[in-house]
Design brief:
Rossmann fold; 6-stranded mixed β-sheet; binds guanosine-5'-diphosphate; single chain; alpha/beta
């Protein structure tokens, strides 16, 4: 009968609408698994090292406004369910993780990338370098995707949240410093990559044919790297602090991250 057909139509229409997703990346131990667990369940269980990318269905809490909400009239009191999204964890290790990241990013209906950093770990030189190299490669991939997209249909740009996690830890750098330290270190990574020093296995001859400008992150040949340079490459970068874990029952401080997700959902 007709009502059944209408129901079926509405069901199919809803099902065909892909759930948007956000991809979690970052060095091992930064807190990605804890982040995913907290956002999906509202609590953190014991985390474990997983091999496969995991996805969890999450829902924006009623306290967080979504982008769509902005276009709603204040007098519109009709109840509307808060939007849902997938959080995809990418636990790849070593060199493989870059490939894993890019394959996830090209596959799913990605609304954003969440790069989780341990704000205490990056106070050490080794921790800072690891995070900056990973972030450099991720941002360069997004930059190239934008450049190539210009000539074809132009993929939707993917904004990046750098989640300065573990702000509850005594030795953590404050969010502002996490930002500037990463910018300085990314500049160093950028310089050494352009000199061909970083890939020890690759000889200088192999770099001769490289597109130097295309492999340069941000404003070409600039003396400093700033995340704001990514804007002209279609990548909006935000650095927001918080902690997934916290003292006591209430858990961590994650409101700013929810806010960012809401704005990009
Ligand atoms: P992953 O390797 O990025 O998935 O990191 P995990 O989620 O496994 O977290 C690594 C360790 O850091 C675990 O022992 C977590 O309990 C801990 N951790 C994660 N987030 C926080 C945080 O905000 N504060 C503190 N103090 N510890 C955290």
């Amino acid at each position: 009968s007709l009502p059944i057909l209408i129901h079926l139509y509405l069901y199919k229409k809803a099902a065909s609408k892909e759930v948007p997703s956000f991809v979690l990346v970052g060095p091992s131990g930064a807190g990605k698994t804890s982040f995913l667990t907290l956002f999906a369940n509202g609590t953190i269980a014991e985390t474990y090292t997983s091999q496969e990318p995991q996805a969890a269905l999450c829902q924006l809490p009623s306290s967080t406004r979504s982008k769509e909400d902005r276009y709603r009239s204040e007098h519109d009191t009709s109840s509307r369910s808060q939007p849902k999204f997938h959080l995809v964890d990418n636990p790849g290790h070593g060199k493989l993780r870059h490939h894993a990241t890019t394959s996830i990013l090209s596959r799913t209906s990605v609304r954003g990338l969440i790069f989780v950093v341990d704000s205490a770990a990056i106070s050490s030189a080794a921790g800072l370098t690891e995070a900056a190299e990973y972030l450099h490669d991720t941002l360069l991939w997004l930059q190239k995707r934008h450049t190539q997209g210009k000539t074809t249909k132009g993929p939707a740009s993917i904004p990046v949240l750098i989640a300065a996690n573990k702000q509850d830890v005594f030795t953590s750098l404050p969010t502002g410093l996490v930002k500037t330290k990463l910018e300085e270190e990314i500049h160093r990574v950028r310089e050494s990559k352009s000199k061909g020093f970083l890939d020890s296995g690759v000889g200088m001859e192999d770099d001769a044919g490289k597109d130097e400008e295309g492999d340069w992150l941000g404003e070409y040949a600039s003396k400093e790297f700033k995340f704001s340079q990514m804007e002209e490459h279609g990548v909006d970068v935000s650095v927001l602090g918080g902690n997934v874990r916290g003292d006591g029952e209430e858990g961590g401080k994650v409101e700013k991250w929810w806010g960012w997700i809401g704005e990009n959902l």
